[in-house]
Prior knowledge:
This is HAT C-terminal dimerisation domain-containing protein. Pfam families: Dimer_Tnp_hAT (PF05699). GO terms for molecular function: protein dimerization activity. InterPro entries: HATC_C_dom. The chain has helices spanning 2-12, 15-27, 45-55, 57-66, 77-100, 107-129, 137-144, 151-168, 170-174, 176-183, 195-205, 208-217, 221-229, 236-246, 253-265, 275-286, 294-299, 312-323, 328-338, 343-351, 355-358. 65% of the residues lie in helices and 0% in strands. The chain is an all-alpha fold. It has three domains: 2-172, no CATH class; 176-246, no CATH class; 253-358, no CATH class. The chain is flat. The chain is built from 21 helices and no strands. Residues 306-359 have low confidence and may be disordered.
Amino acid sequence: MSVVVKCINQIRSMGLKHWQFRAFLEEIESEYEDVLYFTKVRCLNRGNVLKRFFELRAEVKAFMERDGVAVPVLSDPKWLMDLAFLVDITHELNVLNKKLQGQGQLVSAAYDNVRAFSTKLVLWKAQLSQTNLCHFPACKALVDAGTPFSGEKYVDAIVKLQEEFDHRFADFKTQRATFHIFADPFSFDVQDAPPELQMELIDLQCNSDLKAKFREVSGKADKLGQFLRELPPSFPELSRMFKRTMCLFGSTYLCEKLLSTKNFNKSKYRSRLSDDHLQAILRVSTASSLKPNVAQLWQQGVGKRSHVQKNRSCSSMFFHVQNCSCSEEPFMFFNVYSCSEEQFMFKRTLIRPSLTQTLPPAAPR
């Protein structure tokens, strides 16, 4: 990884050399226009940087040699095979990382993805020992080009990765039965359940009405959570277990999203943004379940006042809102409930595009 970062920094650190490299790629009609910068902050950046560098390895080597900088490892078949293996593994880790992200994901679903990846590691270990590279496209490309391959070294790397996963997620294994009951309480074996849940689990599995409702919401995280929260009072232990499981955080995705939204909005270009406005923006951007009642807002008298106001900061705020990668409706909610003097102007600007069909006429003055 250090060689890759060094080559990328040497290409992109100086503007002239970076321009020459991009012109070189354009001249030879390369598939890509540039290499990617590496940063440790972004979790998916490592895999993307390695993949781009591997696919541009011949172009980088030719450019560095033309510039008078020799990189011997780019001609070493063993180092290139190590790089290819790292590219394939980091790609699979990025796929797992994306599966663990997302709003509204329950911890049981996240643990299922982790167990699936652990099972894949077992499969890859067996295939690498047999020199089967069907799931390692970068390594397979080098082998097809005549590069020798030895699977024993990479089998040891898979074993270490498997041990690391087992160590990191050891606490989840103790809750495996709880996750299975949470995911499908109607097909779980009662004998494997904790003693305090067995009687209630039998009553639940024999309840035809609840079983039919569960089949309707199966696969829908929001509706499944509502179903589990609204169990009848005759299932106190199951309800307590379901609520406790739903409160577990499967990942830090929501925290990272909140911090990213805060850093994006509270910048030097928005120095007049108050704490109340920032709090409203963060609330709306992280809570996708909030829906504005536009018709009710219109009935309350949005159209009864003049929208001419001499406040340029309001207009500036509107354009910053438009630059956000968010839908228009949540910001209607923000503008209505968080602004004071510029409240009406925000409403008028954001609601007006849909007035012709969805809103009732304004009340007479």
